[in-house]
Amino acid sequence: MFSTTKILIATQHGKEQVMQPLLEQELGLECFVNQSFDTDVLGTFSGEVEREDGVIETLRKKCNLAMEVHNFTLAIATEGSFGAHPSLFFAAANDELVMLLDKENNIEVIARTLSLETNYNTAEITTELNLIEFSEQAKFPSHAIILQSSLKNAEFLFKGITNKEDLISSFKIIKEKYPFVFVSTDMRAMFNPTRMKVIQETTKKVIQKLKSLCPSCNFPGFDVVEVISGLRCSQCRLPTKSTLSHLYTCKKCAFSETKMYPNLIEQEDPMYCNYCNP
């Protein structure tokens, strides 16, 4: 599939724990972990460095810059975003993307997982009681916490806190000088087992896409480029917004193929029809 069997995992946050076994077992690749390129220069969750580009471009930069430093042609990286779910507005979500980039063969495969499985949270607190309540909701101490004196250019910034003594002492240091303390869940993968599971799930999706070969030229990454709605209602037979088909396109030879009924249903329930259930 690749012109090399060596792949660089572009991370400094322990993501190889879940990515390496999958890449070795499923693709037969020899994994190496980035040791020299500081991935935090592209953005940090705690606000020291703002992410300047969109997620896809940041992923591409992370792969390319790490490959240049380590002299690799094959790399994989992840980028996560956290906040309100786009449709369930009162629920937090982990929007995780994984990119595998092969410079030799010009292959770029991306997979995404939008997961409600996250402990993501932030708050502005004034008391130790507030802090303890936050920590209990954040799955502390198995999941780390960040305390800081301000959201940007913080005088005090304590990251990766995983025990109660450090949590309380760090809070007191900030509270002595500031009226509020900003507390947040540490979303770096090595401090967040819940996010690590989402990264594992998304890596599996990348591997599945790589194993999808073009029927015309056998090039890997034969993937969905368009989701087409219009599945007909079983009652009125009018088209609904539900998925009718997926359009697959090869990145190498541009061969395209439409696959009907990807969700394995040929008609939609009337409850999802705008005409039958307006």
Task: Briefly say what this structure is.
This protein is α+β, with helices and mostly antiparallel strands and 278 residues long.
Can you tell me about this structure?
This protein has helices spanning about 15-25, 55-70, 130-135, 165-175, 195-210, and strands at about 5-10, 30-35, 75-85, 90-100, 105-115, 120-125, 145-150, 155-160, 180-185, 225-230, 245-250, 255-260. The protein is an alpha+beta fold and about 280 residues long. It has 3 domains: about 5-115 and about 190-210, Maf protein (Alpha-Beta Complex), CATH 3.90.950.10; about 120-185, Dna Ligase, domain 1 (2-Layer Sandwich); about 225-270, no CATH class. Strands 2-1-3-4-5 form a 5-stranded mixed sheet, sandwiched between helices. The chain has a 4-stranded antiparallel sheet with strand order 6-9-7-8, covered by helices on one side. Strand 3 and strand 4 form a beta hairpin. Helix 1 packs parallel to helix 5. The N and C termini lie far apart (about 50 Å).
Summarize this structure as a short list of keywords or feature phrases:
5 helices, 12 strands, four-stranded antiparallel beta sheet, 278 residues, Dna Ligase, domain 1, single chain, flat, alpha+beta, Maf protein, five-stranded mixed beta sheet
